[in-house]
Amino acid sequence: MKRNTSIAALLAAATIATTGGFAYAGQDGKRAGDRYDELLTSKITLQHAIASAQLQHPDGRVIKAELEQGKDAPYYEVDVVTPDKSVVEVRVDATDGKVIASDVQNRDARKDRQERKDAKERKDARERS
């Protein structure tokens, strides 16, 4: 009798874990699909966005570049380190390759921005659960 109860509990736990895994995988698939949509709507490549940022700061070195979704349209965010060791965040329009904005970031601003981004991701993850 105890063995039957253990087997039933094990099957129930496996079912719950599997169902949760499928639900989580479905959400990730949706997010990945959204990212693919962003890539498809962007008219320029990541390399082109990096080249546009380097034209703005020819003595700098690109340390990070990624595609972001703005309120209206996707844009590339390119971080460039200048010779004076400041980091410049260059936003490049993903539809036409024009530089939208160029802001010097200090360490505190970058840290604050990363913390806000992490908090938003945690909130989104909780909402999906």
What is the helix tally? 3
> What Rg is obtained from the alpha carbons, in whole angstroms?
22 Å
Unreliable residue stretches: 8-15, 17-30
List the helices and strands in order.
Answer: HHEEEEH
How are the elements arranged and paired?
Blueprint: H1 2-41, H2 46-56, E1 61-69, E2 74-81, E3 87-93, E4 99-105, H3 107-128
Antiparallel strand pairs: 1-2, 2-3, 3-4
What does this structure look like?
With 129 residues, the protein is α+β, with helices and mostly antiparallel strands. The protein has 3 helices and 4 strands; from the N terminus they run H-H-E-E-E-E-H. Strands 1-2-3-4 form a 4-stranded antiparallel beta sheet. Strand 1 and strand 2 form a beta hairpin. It is flat. The chain starts with a helix and ends with a helix.
Condensed summary:
By secondary structure, the protein is an alpha+beta fold. 57% of the residues lie in helices and 24% in strands. It has helices at 2-41, 46-56, 107-128, and strands at residues 61-69, 74-81, 87-93, 99-105.
What key attributes describe this structure?
single chain; 129 residues; alpha+beta; 3 helices; 4 strands; 57% helix; flat
